[in-house]
């Protein structure tokens, strides 16, 4: 057994699940508050509140799952939609309902954000089993993942310099990633690795596990939850 260090005390996946449940409960509470006020506010005002929450949810997802312009737009939606609903409710004389709903939504946003990204975690110990040095390693890379991290960090060149065979996923057409991995195994690969998002990581990891091969995770996706669940340092 060898000892390696990773990030995050305790079980990072369990903590993320608890935070995600908290976010869902808070978001549901915000909706319940609006529905409970149905008798005291007009239907159009209530409907606008629900629409605002939906828009904020979409904005939150864009903010945590994307980068660039779409992430900026998500931030504007996530913050602007609740603010617009609050202004509308103040004008409609039901500002208390708006404040409670907005507070619950703020809790939902905070928990969701923390579930996906928890900075400042201390080191923990993960037990690993050393593998033999591979003779025919194969890495599958998605050039579109993480906004182009494969190209930005020169991963193809660096992997080939270390003696790995690289299979690039064609972004112009849909590739059967599992078939690519199985083909690599059939051709004698003794290590499989992925530089890409969580979906690609999971598909190739399943093939590696099936054939009892070591699997290399290169965190080249956007959020890299697969690496997070393994306790790896995603940076």
In words, what does this structure look like?
This protein has 235 residues and is of the alpha/beta class. The protein folds into 2 domains: 2-116, no CATH class; 131-229, 3-Layer(aba) Sandwich (Rossmann fold), CATH 3.40.50. It is built from 9 helices and 6 strands. It has helices at residues 12-36, 43-65, 69-91, 95-116, 149-152, 155-161, 177-186, 198-210, 225-229; strands at residues 2-7, 123-128, 137-141, 165-168, 191-196, 215-219.
Structural class: alpha/beta
Number of folding domains?
A: 2
The tally of helices reads 9
Order of helices and strands: EHHHHEEHHEHEHEH
What is the beta-strand fraction? 5-15%
Spatial arrangement of strands, main beta sheet: 4-3-5-6
**Backbone shape:** elongated
Structural Rg: 23 Å
Low-pLDDT stretches: 1-9, 119-125
Q: Give the helix level as a range of percent.
A: 55-70%
Q: Give the termini distance in whole angstroms.
A: 25 Å
Main pleated sheet: 4 strands, parallel
Number of beta strands: 6
Query: What is the average of the pLDDT values?
Result: 80
List strands and helices in order, with pairings:
Elements: E1 2-7, H1 12-36, H2 43-65, H3 69-91, H4 95-116, E2 123-128, E3 137-141, H5 149-152, H6 155-161, E4 165-168, H7 177-186, E5 191-196, H8 198-210, E6 215-219, H9 225-229
Parallel strand pairs: 3-4, 3-5, 5-6
Antiparallel strand pairs: 1-2
Helix pairs in contact: 1-2, 1-4, 2-3, 2-4, 3-4, 7-8
Characteristic terms for this protein:
disordered N terminus, two-stranded antiparallel sheet, 6 strands, elongated, alpha/beta, 235 residues, Rossmann fold
């Amino acid at each position: 057994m060898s000892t390696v260090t990773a990030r995050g005390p305790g079980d990072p996946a369990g903590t993320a699940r608890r935070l995600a449940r908290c976010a869902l409960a808070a978001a549901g509470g915000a909706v319940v508050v609006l529905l409970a006020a149905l008798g005291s506010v007009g239907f159009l005002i209530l409907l606008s509140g629900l629409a605002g929450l939906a828009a904020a949810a979409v904005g939150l997802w864009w903010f945590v799952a994307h980068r660039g312009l779409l992430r900026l737009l998500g931030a504007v939606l996530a913050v602007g939609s609740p603010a617009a609903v609050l202004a509308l409710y103040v004008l409609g004389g039901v500002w208390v309902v708006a404040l409670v709903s907005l507070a619950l939504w703020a809790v939902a946003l905070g928990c969701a954000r923390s579930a996906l990204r928890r900075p400042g975690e201390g080191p923990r110990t993960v037990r690993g089993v050393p593998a033999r040095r591979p003779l025919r390693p194969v890495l599958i890379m998605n050039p579109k993942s993480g906004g182009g991290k494969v190209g930005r960090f020169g991963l193809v060149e660096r992997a080939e310099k270390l003696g790995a065979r690289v299979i690039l996923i064609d972004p112009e057409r849909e590739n059967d990633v599992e078939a690519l991995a199985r083909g690599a195994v059939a051709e004698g690969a003794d290590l499989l690795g992925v530089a890409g998002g969580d979906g690609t990581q999971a598909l190739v990891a399943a093939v590696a596990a099936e054939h009892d091969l070591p699997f290399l995770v290169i965190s080249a996706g956007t959020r890299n939850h697969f690496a997070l669940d393994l306790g790896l340092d995603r940076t």
